[in-house]
Design brief:
By secondary structure, the protein is α/β, with parallel strands linked by helices. The protein contains 14 helices and 16 strands. The protein is globular. The structure holds adenosine-5'-triphosphate (ATP) and pyruvic acid.
């Protein structure tokens, strides 16, 4: 087994994905300095999760495993059997899950492709929708016309559509949505397999967590297992209610991928700053996820702005970082972890020295 080289000043989490689910890849990430893994329940099969958890638990009992459940995330519905490409300028139809089969029959002779979303008609009734975004806001489809739940859109760029792909409708009100059945099944699976932490996605209020806790407590008394609960904040309401959310959990993860789609990428630093200010001296753990070391995936070294971002976040009280696509879909995962650990160690040494100096000066 590879030994962990050093203990880091910050909590560093890596997401496992197609490029890192083998035992060998997991060992390399641990050797580079990882002390917790995120498993995205939306992308990894249950068989693979069982194998990964078994491997980590029996070889690295101190490494924590975090199961990230999908929450109230809008995605392309599982009802879409075969994926397809839509080209720049092409018009397509989005619809809701409960209208998809009917619409497919009605439009059988039309050339328009239909994309079903995993939401029910009631969720979008009366809602003004100007755009639908795909993959954390990276691709935009402008709404050209709409009749109830039949939404005609034009693509700004060429995109591949497959089931499960993440979508964003900015104006959506999640308070009307039920906890997806899939989340409850996934939580029970995580508990039965001794996963340490469940990461609840799209938490917008303390009430959201309490609803999950009710379900988790019921499972817990039935199977006699427990699990730690963390909240992922990635909506405007979540940022607004951050202190309220903290009353129900000790760890907050800021999901910058979804947040940039939900709140607009230009506003992202402002949301991040707002959470830092709110959590300052709260004693809560604050972990920032996504787009931490993307340049290492692309070019083999971090960019100046990534390093500056990391330093500023540490100065503002962030306690940990969560790598997502850097380790799940890139072959440069261990390199990203090494750079991140080195940066965190170096900056925390400097910040600690500065703090001690200032404390002494104040006395
Ligand atoms: N097993 C997989 N098969 C295909 N694509 C994957 C897989 N795992 C991850 N991905 C892709 O890599 C990206 C980064 O993976 P990660 O698990 O960090 O997801 P994420 O950005 O939180 O995704 P999502 O928002 O879809 O839950 C995802 O957006 C997804 O498109
Ligand atoms: C990690 C995650 O969910 C996000 O960045 O949105």
């Amino acid at each position: 087994m590879i030994n962990v080289l050093w203990r880091k000043a910050m909590y560093i989490v890596a997401t496992l994905g197609p490029k890192t689910i083998s035992d060998n890849a997991i060992q390399k990430l641990i050797g580079a300095g990882i002390e917790a893994f995120r498993i995205n329940m939306s992308h990894i099969s249950k068989d693979n999760i069982k194998r990964i958890v078994g491997f980590i638990k029996s070889n690295y009992p101190d490494v924590k495993i975090i199961g990230d459940i999908t929450g109230k995330k809008v995605r392309v519905s599982e009802k879409l059997k075969d994926g397809f490409k839509i080209t720049k300028g092409e018009e397509v139809i989005f619809t809701v899950e409960d209208q998809y089969d009917k619409l497919k029959k009605q439009l059988v002779d039309s050339k328009l492709k239909i994309i079903p979303l995993n939401i029910k008609q009631a969720i979008i009734e009366g809602l003004e929708i100007n755009d639908i975004y795909i993959k954390d806001g990276r691709y935009r489809l402008a709404v050209m016309g709409r009749k109830g739940s039949v939404i005609q859109c034009r693509a700004d760029s060429t995109i591949y559509i497959t089931k499960g792909k993440s979508c964003t409708i900015k104006s959506i009100d999640r308070s009307n949505m039920d906890i997806p059945d899939r989340d409850i099944e996934d939580i029970e699976f995580l508990m039965k397999n001794d996963v340490d932490i469940v990461l609840l996605s799209f938490i917008s209020s303390a009430e959201d967590i309490r609803k999950y806790k009710e379900k988790i407590n019921a499972i817990s008394s039935r199977i006699n297992k427990s699990i730690e609960i963390w909240a992922k904040v990635e909506t405007k309401d979540g940022v607004k209610n951050i202190l309220d959310i903290c009353s129900e959990t000790d760890t907050i993860v800021f999901g910058r991928g979804d947040m940039s789609a939900e709140g607009g990428i230009l506003n992202l630093p402002l949301y991040q700053w707002e959470i830092c200010r709110s959590l300052h001296k709260s004693g809560k753990m604050f972990i920032v996820a996504t787009n931490i070391m993307d340049n290492v995936s692309l070019k083999g070294r971090p960019s100046t702005s990534e390093l500056n971002d990391i330093f500023t976040m540490m100065k503002n009280g962030v306690n940990g970082f969560m790598l997502t696509s850097e380790t799940s879909v890139s072959t440069n995962g261990p390199l990203a972890v090494r750079y991140l650990c080195k940066a965190c160690n170096r900056y925390s040494n400097i910040l600690n020295k500065r703090k001690i100096k200032n404390d002494v000066r104040r006395k």
